[in-house]
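User: Could you go from structure to sequence for me? I need the amino acid at each position, not a summary. Structure tokens:
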């Protein structure tokens, strides 16, 4: 009985080996067809482009692609996504190169994760016309809902290099150009959390008739399914600087809550240039404080924001047609809550004397009824 058992073992082993060889040969053949057969490649791309258009409404164009079985990755080149823009030469998004890598955790349990996504030189153009219509794609038909989220994909490394973002809102009106946009994020599967940094340089924002705000921005962040954490945001515009850290909870629900702390150093020459108002005092103003936000769709935003802080300045140079003087050691505490504002402990040295006072403004977003109490001594 020993020999038949050995014989069956050999048959099973040789059968398994033949199946593996056949599978490997099939995979290699498919990869060779995908990488070398133009007709086969074009047919695959056509199916993918059609599927994307049916599910999202976006018209996808892919110049070329390449598969690498050695590390289970795919490279896409000259990727163009069209929305509802009227000028095909200015698509919603264009990407020079996109790489997606996969890692198989278990063949038996069919478990895998996205090892990395690398996006090189994406150019995004968002537009809103005077009627409020945007250029985002509109699905041709409703697609089946999917419970898969970006946290289920578990992208271990996400990199976006040398990006450009152009935003033109004719209804607001607001324009923004961001260059050298970069994102570097990693995923922690134990905490189901993405963490990383993002930033850009040579940013420009134009609102209405005001002068452009040219600035740079750098930020560190963390994201879970229920919480967004801004560990640090640094914004520089001219000689002015703004720093911010914040936490947003339940950001996917109507009951979103946010808290944060801020500090800013504003050089008034920057503000005068932007507002085109030479009558503003010259000098440096510092602000520090904290803020809270509780989402409430039934109330105006100014009524759902609470801000506490203080403002100070070592000296301001006031030049108007009726007054030329200097203000020294300016300080005040301010509070905004429920749509009402208070400025307390106003004090400063001016014209050889001291100024103190208090300001209250009710219904900031509406009637703005203000009352000022002030005294000047010496």
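Assistant: Here is the amino acid at each position, in order:
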């Amino acid at each position: 009985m020993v020999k038949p058992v050995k014989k069956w073992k050999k048959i099973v082993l040789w059968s398994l080996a033949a199946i593996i060889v056949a599978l490997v040969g099939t995979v290699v053949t498919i990869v060779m067809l995908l990488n070398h057969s133009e007709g086969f490649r074009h047919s695959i791309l056509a199916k993918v482009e059609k599927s994307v258009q049916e599910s999202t409404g976006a018209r996808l164009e892919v110049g070329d692609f390449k598969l690498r079985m050695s590390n289970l990755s795919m490279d896409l080149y000259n990727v163009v996504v069209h929305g509802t823009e009227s000028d095909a030469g200015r698509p919603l998004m264009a990407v020079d190169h996109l790489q997606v890598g996969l890692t198989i955790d278990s063949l038996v349990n069919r478990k895998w994760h996205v090892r990395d996504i690398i996006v090189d030189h994406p150019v995004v153009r968002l537009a809103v016309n005077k009627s409020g219509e945007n250029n985002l794609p509109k699905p041709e038909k409703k697609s089946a809902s999917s419970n898969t989220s970006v946290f289920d994909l578990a992208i271990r490394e996400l990199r976006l290099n040398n990006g450009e973002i152009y935003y033109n809102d004719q209804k607001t009106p607001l324009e923004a150009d961001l260059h050298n946009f970069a994102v570097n994020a990693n995923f922690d599967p134990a905490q189901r959390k993405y963490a990383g940094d993002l930033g850009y340089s040579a940013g420009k924002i134009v609102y209405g008739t005001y002068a452009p705000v040219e600035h740079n921005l750098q930020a560190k962040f963390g994201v879970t399914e229920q919480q967004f954490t801004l560990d640090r945001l640094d914004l520089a515009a001219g000689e002015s600087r703004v720093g911010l850290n914040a936490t947003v909870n339940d950001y996917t629900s109507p009951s979103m809550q946010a808290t944060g702390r801020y500090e800013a150093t504003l050089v008034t020459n920057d503000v005068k240039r932007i507002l085109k108002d030479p009558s503003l005092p010259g000098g440096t103003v510092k602000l520090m404080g904290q803020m809270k936000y509780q989402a409430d769709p039934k109330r105006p935003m100014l009524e759902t924001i609470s801000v506490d802080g203080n403002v100070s300045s070592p000296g301001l140079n006031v030049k108007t047609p009726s007054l030329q003087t200097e203000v020294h050691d300016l300080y005040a505490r301010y509070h905004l809550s429920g749509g009402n504002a208070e400025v307390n402990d106003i004090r400063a040295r001016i014209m050889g004397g001291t100024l103190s006072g208090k300001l209250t403004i009710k219904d900031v977003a509406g009637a703005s009824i203000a009352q000022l109490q002030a005294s000047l001594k010496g």
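One structural detail worth keeping in mind: The CA atoms of residues 70 and 101 lie 11 Å apart.
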